[in-house]
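Operator note (shift B, R.M.): manual run for Beta-glucosidase requested after the automated queue skipped it. Running by hand, logging everything below so the morning shift can see what happened. Input copied straight from the record, untouched. If output looks odd, do not overwrite the archive copy; leave it for review.
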Amino acid sequence: MGGFECSTHRRPSGRRVDVIDATAHDRHAHADYQRLAQVGLRTARDGLRWHLIERRPGEYDFLSAEAQVRAAQAAGVQVIWDLMHYGFPDFIDLLRPEFPGQFADYALAAMRFLRSFTTGTLWLCPINEISFSAWAGAEVGYFNPCLHGRGAELKRQLVRAVAAASQAICRADSDVRFLHAEPLIRVHPSPKFDPFEAALEHEGQFETFDLLCGAREPELGGHPELLDVLGVNYYPYNQWLHHPEVEGRITLNAAHPTYQPLHELLAQVHARYGRPVLIAETGTEGDERAPWLDMVLRQSALARRAGVTLLGVCLYPVVNHPGWDDDRHCHNGLWDYADAHGRREAHQPLLARLQHGPRALATAHP
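Run finished. Output pasted below as returned.
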């Protein structure tokens, strides 16, 4: 799979990030999806921009997404559509009681719009990375709503919203499937701190899935049927030595003696929930892009051979984009910025590795 970065959050400064606009994916959607299909990526992640769709409460205009939807359809690429990728309209207050209903109304309208272009199963990711959204938005004030110390409260609001939206959508259309994407991490104990604290931090990554399936706090609306496909987002910085302060974490790489292989982490998630798993985001920057994908594909093959129902791997992103914080040119995609005609230069080592991906899945050895 290939994923188009589609974040639309506001920074604490008030400036809105819009990666689809910054990468010109909306303006060159046709060429982008044709390229995706030509290299064999027939499934994708992409997103709708809620702040452009609902400029006034209860009024929906999907013109901003139409080029992407039509381009995917023309290229024959199946898309899992993110409905909320960190951003939302300015009139929305995520912590007010009416938010779950507001999101459900928007999600239902989005489903109906997407259904008009979709034959067969429609795939949706209602809210991307609930746990990170809650931490970044309401625990440390990294992005909207830029609050501190209210992360647990926001996480539960987002779960309520997903539950309300999924119920409304399933009542209207029985052929909709859901991806719930969350970070996959491994927190290692540090000799400097209580190992129980590291275990708690590691276990915390599962709280959102537990809430969605109703294993915890079922009054939020979670239930077993809601937890459909488990998306896990995995990057080079997702394993670290525990430290009570984020700035004090030491990232571990595969050369570290306690680093846990990805296939084991995938097996743990699959065993815990008994649901299909999808690596919903993975990638890195610079010259490490191809080696990283090689590792992920081999580890994915090992997981599948061990019995994990792993549906696929999403290279994320497929297009370079400006950095969230500093607008730097992030060389993390398969293709670079577009020229005036929509042409994008490919990162050749990654392209070559991608073309051998299926062989890695079929022939990997322990």
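Quick read of the result: Residues 151-172 form the longest helix (22 residues). The chain has one domain: 2-363.
Leaving this for review. - R.M.
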